[in-house]
Give the backbone structure.
Amino acid sequence: MISSFLTSRTRVAVAALFVCAAGALAPRAIADDSTGSANPPAAIPSNLPASTPAASTGTAADNSEGSSPLQLGEVQVTAEKQVGTEHDTPISMAVEPAEDLQSRGIIDVTALAIETPGVSLKSNGPGQTEFEMRGMTSSGGNSPTVGFYLDDVALTAPAGAQNGKVVLTPPLFDIDRTEVLRGPQGTLYGSGSMGGTFKLIFNQPDLSQFQGSVESTLSGTEGGGFNHNDNIMLNIPVVQDKLAIRIVATEAYTSGWIDRVVLDPFPETDSTGAIRGNVLAAPIQQQFPQSNSDQYDTLRGIILWKPTKRLSITLSGDYMGDNQAGISAYDQFPGNLDHYEVFNIPEPKTDKEIIESLNINYAFDSFDVTLTSAYWARRSTQTEEASEMFNDPAQALAYYANYGLPNPGFYSPNGTGEAYGTEDDPTNQFSMELRFASTDKGPFQWVTGAYFTHYWAVWNFAGTTPNFASFMDIGTGAPATTPNWFDAYSPTTMEQYALYGNATYALTKKLKASVGLRVTDYDYQFASTISGWGSALGAATPSVQSGVTQSEAVEDPKFNLSYELNNDLNVYGSVAEGFRPGGGNAAYPTTGVWANSFAAMNYTSGKWPSTYNSDSVWSYEIGAKSRWLHRRLMVNASLYYEDWDHIQLLAYPDDWAFNINGNKATIYGGDIDVRALLGGGFELSGSIGYLHDNLDGGPHWVIKPSDVLPDVAAVNGNINLSYSASFMKKYVFKAEAETIYVGPRYSLSFLYYPNYVESGEYTQLPGYVLTNFRVGVSSQQNDWSVSLFVNNAFNKQASLEYLYSETQPSAAFNRVVSNQPLTAGVDMSYHF
C-alpha cells in the first residue's frame, strides 16, 4: 500500500535510511547482547518514561494532611529531542503533565490551546481546528505554520481543504504530557514548524504489570442535550519485562447547540442584496435541533518489545473517526444560534484517519539511535449548502431567475432551486527519521539525524444546481447549460529530504552555547482542473493548470545561549529561522468578471501567477525561567521579535481563494507563565501573552485593513485558583475555578455594508471570557475520582471566526462559528 505511491527517488531515500540504520545498529548490537551491559536510554526511545512529579504535586507526606506540596516539582520534556526538564530547557514552552490535564478537565487539544499564551486558533467544530502561534497565521499557502506531533509522528494538515489547515486531534486520555513549543522549531521539527510545535506524548506500554483505567464524563449543554465521553485503557504484559500491549479506546458524543431551520416561503433580501429578509417572521417548514451534534471515536494499540536491555521496538496503530451532523456555525443575522435554509440540505462532515508507526531504539554506551517510520492516511468530507447565497441579487448569479425566465422568483419551484457543494479531501503521508542523540553527562551534548517525507493531498469539490437554467454561465453570459456549477480537482504532492543537527557545549559550569542547522530539499508538484458554469471560464472551457513544480534547498539555523545564575534561575537568548515551502495556484482568467479584480490587485502581466514562493521568518527571543521562595513560586517569561519575509497571504479575487507573496510582517510580544503555592491547600497559576503585528502586504494585497494579520488575538491568557485538602486520611477534596480570556481578532467577511468589496475585508471579532468551575473527590492513592464541573459557566456566546467556503460568502450575512454553551456534568474515573 505504501509503495504504490512512492517514486523511485523516494524508494532510494528510504532504502538509504534503512541501510544507515542497519549499519549503525548491527555490529554493536551483537557485542552488547553478549555482555549484557546497558545504560538507561536518555534520548527518545519508544517507551519514554513518564514525567517526574508535576508542578502541582509533591510527595505523599506533603499531602497527607491536606497541605500544599512543599515545592514545585520538575516536569520532564523532550522538546529538544533529548530528555530534559522544562526548567532547564532554554526555550519558551508550555508543558501540561497528565495530572494537571485531568485535574482541570482538559480533554482535547482545542481546550488546551485556547488558554495557552501566544496561541491562536480557528475552529469549525470538533476535530476541525487550525493552530497558530505568536501571530504566525497560516491562512496563506499550502503548509501550516505550526507543527503537530503525535509522539514522534508529524501530522500535516490537508493542503487545500476549505476548513483550513486543520488537524484531527486525539482525546487527551492516557497521555503523559503535552508540550507547546513557541517560536520557530524548524531546526529539529522541519518546515511546518516556523511558528511553533504542538507535541502530544502518550503513555507507552508497561512491561512489568497489568494496568487499566476507565473514565466517563456525562454532561448536558444549554440549548443542546446529553453528552458523554467514555474512555478505557488496558495494559497487558505478554512476556514479563519483554513484551507488552497497551490498548486505548474512546467513544464521545457531543450534542449540538445549533438549530437548522427550513422556512417556506423564504424571505428575500432587499433589491440590493444588502439586507437579509426577516427570517424570524417567516413560516417554519421544518426544524432540526442540535444540527451540529458530533460523534468521535478513537482506538490506539501499542506493542512494545524489549528483547534486550538496550533495544526496544514499538509498533503502534491509531484510528480516529469524527462524524458531525452539521457545522458549528449560526447565522450572523438574526444571531440566535440558528441557521436558516431555503431547502432542507443537511451539512454533514466526516473525518477519518489511520496512523501506523514503527519505532526502533538502541542505546549504545554514549548515544542512542532511533529509527522511526510512519504512514498515515486521512479522508475528510463535508457538504455545504448555498441556496440562499446563490439567490442574493448582489452575487449576480441568479440573473435569469428574475429576468430571463417565466414564473420569476428566487425561491419558487421554477426559480433557482437547490444549490450545494460537496467536498472530499484525501491526504496521506509516509515519513522516516533516523536520529542519533548523545546520552552521556559530559559538557558536550548533541543530536543529529536525517528525515524524509512523501506527502500527497487532493482537494475535490463538486457543486450542483438542479435548476441550472436560472443562473448565468460566467464564461458565456448566457443561461447555464449544466447543473455542475463548480467542480474542482487539485492534487498536491511534496517530498522533503532533510539533514539536521544540534550541538550544545557547556563553556563553563553555568554558560552553555547551542548551535543547530537543518538543511531541507523539497520537490513540489501541483495541478488543478476547475469546470462548471460558475467556474472562471464557464462550463464550456475548464480552467486547467498542470505541471506546476517547485524545488528549493533551504537552511534553517538556530543559535542559543543560556546562563544558569543559580539552580533556580536560568536566562537565555536565541536566534532561529523557519520556513514554509511555496506552492501553486489554480488558473484564473483576467477578462470578463475577473478583469476588475486583476486590475485592482495591480497585476499587469496579463495572467495570474501560477506559483507563490516560500516564506521565512527570523525570530529573536530572550527569556528567563525562575523559581522563588524555596521553589514555591515559578515564573517563566520571554520576549520575542519575528521578522517574517515574503509572507504567504491568501487573497480573494471575486471571492475565490488565491495565494500570493506579500512583502513582510513584523511581530513582537511576550509571554509569561506563573505558578504559586499559596499555602493552606491553595495554588494559583496564570499566564498571559501579548503581541503586536504589522503587515506590509505589498502591491498585490488589497484586503482592508491591509496592515493586520487575520485570526490573531493580540492578548490571551488564563488564571486558575485551586484548593485541595485531605480528609478522613483516605480522600482528597479539590475545587478549582478558571477564567480564560481571548482578545479581539480579525476574520474574513464579505458583507455588503458598509462598502461591499469582491475581495472581502477583515472584520474584528470581539474578545471573550470563559469561566469554568470544578469540584471533586478522589482517593488518597488517586485510583478513583469523581468531579462535578460547569464549563462556560456564564454561557458566553463567543464568535470564533466567520465561516468561509466556496458556498458561503454572502453579501447579506456571515455564518459565525460558535463555542459550546454552558455545559455541566460529572466526570468519573477508576484506575486498576
Q: What stands out?
A: The CA atoms of residues 635 and 674 lie 5 Å apart. The radius of gyration is 27 Å. Confidence is low (pLDDT under 50) at residues 1-67, 404-408. The first strand starts at residue 76 and ends at 77.
